[in-house]
């Protein structure tokens, strides 16, 4: 199984450098049932091989905010973009005869 390359702190900082500094931070979780969660903190630790690893955590009192907005799931490629089905013109019902 090929895993996507892990991103680095530098990658995150580069991505965040274009964001509004006052924007709230949330986590997108579970691509098969995309939900939004509150962001609780950042913890740095060491992996078994000694590499530095940074963890993004939920708050102690985990809060699930609800479904992830569809546009976010599409941008994460968790869901394909969906277009609204074509609408057909509906016929009208009119009384028949001289009415």
In what range is the share of β-strand residues?
15-25%
Main sheet strand line-up = 1-2-5
- Secondary-structure element sequence? HEEEEEH
Radius of gyration: 23 Å
Mean pLDDT: 85
The strand count comes to 5
Q: Which residues form runs of ≥5 with pLDDT under 50? A: none
- Shape designation: elongated
Main pleated sheet = 3 strands, antiparallel
Ends distance: 71 Å
Count up the helices.
2
Any chance you could write out the topology, listing elements then pairs?
Layout: H1 9-16, E1 26-29, E2 35-38, E3 41-46, E4 52-57, E5 64-67, H2 70-75
Antiparallel strand pairs: 1-2, 2-5, 3-4
What features would you describe in this structure?
- This protein has 99 residues and is α+β, with helices and mostly antiparallel strands.
- It has two helices and five strands, in the order H-E-E-E-E-E-H.
- A hairpin with a 5-residue loop joins strand 3 and strand 4.
- The mean pLDDT is 85.
Short synopsis of the structure:
This protein is α+β, with helices and mostly antiparallel strands and about 100 residues long.
Describe this protein with a few key phrases.
5 strands; 99 residues; alpha+beta; two-stranded antiparallel sheet; 2 helices; three-stranded antiparallel β-sheet; 14% helix
């Amino acid at each position: 199984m090929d895993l996507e390359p892990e991103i680095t702190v530098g990658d995150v900082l580069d991505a965040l450098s274009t964001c509004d500094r006052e924007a709230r931070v949330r986590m997108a979780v579970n691509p098969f049932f995309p939900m939004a969660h509150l962001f609780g903190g950042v913890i740095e630790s060491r992996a078994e091989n000694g590499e530095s690893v940074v963890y993004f955590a939920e708050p102690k009192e985990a809060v699930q905010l609800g479904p992830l907005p569809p546009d976010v799931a599409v941008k994460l490629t968790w869901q394909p973009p969906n277009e609204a089905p074509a609408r057909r013109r509906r016929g009208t019902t009119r009384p028949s005869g001289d009415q």
